[in-house]
Design brief:
30% of the residues lie in helices and 22% in strands. The chain has 452 residues and is α/β, with parallel strands linked by helices.
Length: 452
């Protein structure tokens, strides 16, 4: 990894990048869907080999630093759990035929199931069988992370087909002292100000929740690693809730560097983009994401912060109050496939992954280019015609938008407002305001606030 002083001049700065073409976006979408397809079969949980194998596969695409924290470690109010290992699990009917087999599909077993090998009547077995009566073809995702239990999941139609009799049940698993594992990719910029991007990697074969977040975060990191950037970027690939708590506990001394943050999840479905604001509600990340969505020409929804959802609620807990929002498409619990076998590879779309990736890139472009300036000629409007491309009044409808952008930037650049503040007040796309600032800085009419 190059230091900021060694960066090649051949690499373009993030704020100057052009948007990918439709063909490039299409290729990126297909590539991300292909990565999700490779990850889909792995049996992930909040600990264990399936999670670590997922991290290793991500590490084949981007540079990762791996962390393992021993089971039993106290992290704030939580004790890190024992590691779960599962080798096989099945149910045999009275004829000896396997009617449920973990090897066929890893959602069949309740996550963190304790070991058992016994025989039960169907009536005694039923309390340990989970289905969705309203969605009779789908298998639910269930877990029991912090309460020792065991169980199986199956479709309601499958459950209804089971006949009375004695069933043999086997779950070959164990809970042992091991490690909680996570990985991070840190991409230093010329500034120590960090953007935190967090995505959970603990769910088994669920495509939207959260292979979609994993592949979009990985592609973002891969892209940022190839270009120069002003800000520093820290990507976290963590088990949900306990992973972010463990990371915060271990890295409390680094948190002052985090100026912006996003949790990424549910980015592959066909719904429109959705953003949940940080606890602060008016952080730069909140304004930047809303700006991108507002100027996207697509439907979107902005929600206020609420203390549930994904890991943003840990980053936004009152003891930290980090500026971290949550970017999704259809929110968790708001689509019928959520936490079921219906959330499969057919449910996520390459074009939705590409669109989510593009919007994240657009947000980062704003954060990269969002600086505050001071007008060096603030007494009256300076003459622009001989300095920049300025048409002025034509008598045929007033000023062009490019001219208005120049005037907005000059008028508002008193050192108290950022370019994003100006774009929001002018109701112009950030790119137009950024281009105007570049032109005005080049001819000496603007200086960065810190240079004045």
């Amino acid at each position: 990894m190059q230091s900021s002083s060694e960066k090649s001049p051949l690499k373009p700065a993030l704020g100057m990048l052009k948007s990918p073409s439709l063909a490039e976006l299409g290729d990126l979408g297909e590539s991300m869907h292909a990565m999700a397809t490779k990850l889909y079969p792995l049996c992930r949980s909040i600990t264990g080999e399936g999670l670590r194998e997922t991290l290793r596969m991500i590490g084949e695409r981007i540079p990762l630093e791996y962390t393992n924290i021993p089971s039993g470690t106290q992290a704030f109010d939580w004790t890190l759990p024992k590691e779960w290992t599962i080798r096989e699990a099945w149910i045999k009917d009275p004829t000896g035929k396997k009617v449920i087999d973990f090897k066929d599909f890893n959602l069949h077993v309740v996550g963190y199931s304790t070991p058992i090998h016994t025989q039960l009547s169907l009536s005694d077995l039923r309390p340990h069988l989970h289905s969705i009566p309203d969605q009779p073809d789908w298998i639910p995702y269930r877990n029991s992370f912090y309460k020792e239990a065991w169980g199986f999941c199956l479709s309601q139609n499958h459950l209804d087909s089971l006949e009375e009799g004695q069933y043999e049940i086997c779950i070959d698993s164990d809970l042992h002292d091991g490690h909680l594992s996570y990985a991070e990719c840190f991409l230093p910029g010329s500034s120590s100000e960090e953007v935190l991007i967090s995505t959970h990697v603990c769910h088994p074969s669920l495509a939207n929740d959260n292979l979609s977040g994993i592949v979009v975060a990985t592609e973002l990191a891969r892209h940022l690693a190839s270009i120069d950037h002003r800000l520093s970027y820290r990507f976290l690939f963590i088990p949900s809730i306990i992973g972010s708590i463990a990371w915060l506990w271990k890295n409390e001394n680094k948190l002052s560097n985090i100026h912006h943050g996003l949790t990424l999840a549910l980015l592959g479905d066909s719904g429109f983009s959705n953003y949940k604001r940080s606890r602060r509600g008016n952080a730069a990340i909140d304004i930047a994401v809303e700006h991108v969505l507002k100027h996207s020409g697509q439907n979107y929804e902005i929600r206020d912060f609420a203390p549930w959802g994904y890991d943003e609620r840990q980053y936004c807990s009152p003891g930290f109050n980090l500026p971290v929002g949550c970017f999704t498409r259809t929110p968790n619990g708001c689509f019928p496939e959520y936490h079921t076998s219906g959330d499969n590879l057919d449910f996520i779309k390459a074009e939705a992954l590409a669109d989510s990736l593009q919007k994240c890139m657009d947000v980062f472009k704003i954060l990269e280019g969002n600086q505050s300036y001071v007008n060096t000629s603030p007494k009256g409007e300076p003459r622009l015609g001989h300095r920049v491309a300025y048409k002025g009044f034509t008598g045929k409808g007033g000023l062009a938008r490019d001219d208005f952008s120049l005037l907005w930037v000059l008028n508002q650049s008193d050192g108290t407002k950022s370019l994003l503040d100006i774009a929001e007040r002018a109701a112009y796309p950030f790119a137009a305001i950024r281009d105007a600032a570049n032109a005005l800085e080049a001819c000496g009419l603007l200086k960065l606030k810190e240079e004045v």
